[in-house]
Write a structure and sequence with these properties.
The chain is an alpha/beta fold and 204 residues long. Helix content is 26%, strand content 23%. It contains 7 helices and 9 strands. A 7-stranded mixed beta sheet has the order 1-3-2-4-5-8-9, sandwiched between helices. It has a two-stranded antiparallel sheet with strand order 6-7. Strand 6 and strand 7 form a beta hairpin. The radius of gyration is 15 Å and the shape is globular.
Length: 204
């Protein structure tokens, strides 16, 4: 099996020893574009943007768990949120907090959280959320308005059905932030409220 290697960009203007944040993006756009609105947070935190190489899926990546090292806050957007969720379930002791922004292709089932986005090949095994539910660290789900597009230029609508964020928040025991005047990338469309929530989470 080919090992998928991440592309990593580091934003760090914080004082030495500042909290680390691993921010996982998917294959739609590069991390500096996806998380441009979070660039000011690098004055307080060491931000490590990680995502798939060209042709990678960003859906499943054991490399995310490896990037956590001895401990970091973990954030994922879109398909990157699925990789972040898998990493949190695999290495819960290395997670300081978990944020999933517009996690696409996930649904809660009796067996666990299952990936539903088509990509060919066998389906991913469900992520059993027992370790996530009992984890002491906080969890946050961030959603834009249901059905709003991510970026019309990229023809990537990724509609988010009503109640989707609430369902995942209930399944994970997470707090939910709904940014109604944003699309599939609320961290880019409305960075103000998203960054405020992230600062509270990462400084808590």
């Amino acid at each position: 099996m080919r090992r998928e290697c991440p592309v990593v960009t580091v934003w760090d203007e914080a004082t030495p020893g500042a909290p680390r944040v691993v921010m996982v993006f998917g294959p739609i756009a590069p991390g500096p574009e996806v998380f441009a609105g979070q660039r000011p947070l690098a004055e307080l935190f060491r931000l490590e943007l990680a995502g798939p190489t060209a042709g990678g899926t960003g859906r499943d990546g054991p490399w995310v768990a490896e990037l956590l090292g001895r401990g970091a806050h973990l954030l994922g957007h879109c398909a990157g949120a699925t990789a972040a969720l898998n990493a949190a379930a695999a290495a819960p002791d290395a997670v300081r907090s978990l944020t999933l922004i517009e996690p696409c292709g996930l649904r809660a089932t009796a067996e666990g959280l299952r990936s539903t986005s088509p990509r060919g090949g066998p389906p991913d095994p469900p992520v059993r959320q027992a370790a996530l539910l009992t984890a002491a660290w906080p969890k946050l789900i961030v959603n834009g308005a249901p059905g709003r597009p991510y970026d019309a230029r990229r023809r990537c609508a990724h509609p988010t059905p009503p109640g989707y964020g609430e369902q995942l928040a209930d399944a994970l025991g997470a707090r939910q932030l709904r940014v109604d005047d944003a699309g599939h990338a609320p961290q880019r469309d409305r960075p103000g409220p998203v960054n405020a929530a992230l600062r509270r989470l990462w400084q808590g």
